Amino acid sequence: MTYPFSVDRILGSRPFAEIGHPALAVADGRRGLLAVTGTHGFSHHPAVGVYDSATLACRALVRSRDVVQAMAFHPTLPLLAVGTGSYDGGYFFTGDLLLLDLETGTSISAFEDGQGRQVLELEWLDEQRLRVLMAPPDDWQDEEAHTQGHTAVVVRRDWASVPARSIRPHELVGPRVPAPRPDGRAAAYRLVSELGPDWEPRLTVHAVEELSDGRILATLDEVQLECWLPSGTRAWTVPDEEGGREIAVARDEKSAWVSLARPERHNRRTQSVVRLSLADGAEEDRVAPTGCVSLSSAADGAPALSPSGYRIRGVPVAARHPFHIRHASRAWFLSYVRQEGTRRSHPGTPWMATAELKPGRGSDRPAEPTRTDVLRQFPYSWVADEEHLGGPGVESADGSLIHAGTVFRQSRRPGDSFVVRREASDGSGGTPRWVFRTDCHATALDADTTTVFVAYDDGEIVALDLDDGTVLWRHRLTLGNVTAIPTALTVSRQGRLVIGTRDGRILLCSVTA
Question: H or E stretch including 191?
């Protein structure tokens, strides 16, 4: 049986692709290895890649929940110690010690305490002793907490078999010492650039589209839009401080509308939507919406804007989990209903709402729906007393909606992420036809006439039957020896997917039934 998914071509591939902007680099000359950590734009999960110094192939990869502050190769074992942590802005210094097995690619968190300690420096004194320099637990009545720390020596007979969460707080007690916070970014940039002359920092891909002539368009953090030729050469790129998000290609494929990064919650800067020439990326037009919006291509190919957020005390606030429906015959978005007794900072209960699509000045210019156009259809959550967060989706040929989302809880439970196909005609109540549940967050979704394709933040691509939601196949997205995280996905034609990744690569893929 032929496997249904294959990666045919990779655009944006380069050395050290996995780590984004390098922040720290540590070499192991004896084994010819190099550990590099970096960040991908606004991602809260820094990556640590371990590379072969000669070939620059990635041997292992681990993603941290916090900023990586220190790394140290074990003197004899295939093991990398990774110290992480940060200041929470108000009181605590928290972090962890990760132990990465270079042979299996697996890692564990070693500190028993869930909050841990911010690790600032690591040094192997010998095969059994690891010196750990940490920030103080907090800065309460401690004016020198940000310049001093504590040093401890943790001893294990065999570091390769250390269980998770086994280093206890009393083992981290030690004398107070000066603890400078050096910045390793300049040295890391210099080393990565010397070893990989073709290296360039590429960040998270947010949207991808394929034109009829084979050109590929993509938006990324710090890039409004870029265009790749069928030959695999990048034709042009439009740099930007923050970058582009959604793409709506004009029907004549001479230009494309691009929504730029939404402002953060307390940033009063207005979001913009720009029209760029597909010949050279030059800006041809610009729209300034009244609030936060989502951009898509409607079912007829016209560009469409939908609200994507809410207002707190009159200030537009971008949705942290945008509800974004592509290829729709009308604008779909979430409208929030305030209830008595809720705090002023709470937007309210989300309802699915629609508005007829209206062109702006000129038939090819997107316009926002007016308040009088909005029709609330049904509650976003079809489960009583359960709050759902938004996600990506599409409208099918019969007008039903297929969209992803997540159940909001204080602590996640298995099956809290879902993909659902819902009746969406007026008066239907949004009744689900089927629901597919999983544990991971859906990052992108698209569909053809028979199949729904869903990308997840654990690196998996799942194909679901459009009619009943059954799983047709699943594929773990790996490039080389490590998992790649898909962040954008488009069905460009039957049997063809274009996928963008967190590390800035664009994959041209084939799928079979």
Answer: helix 185-195
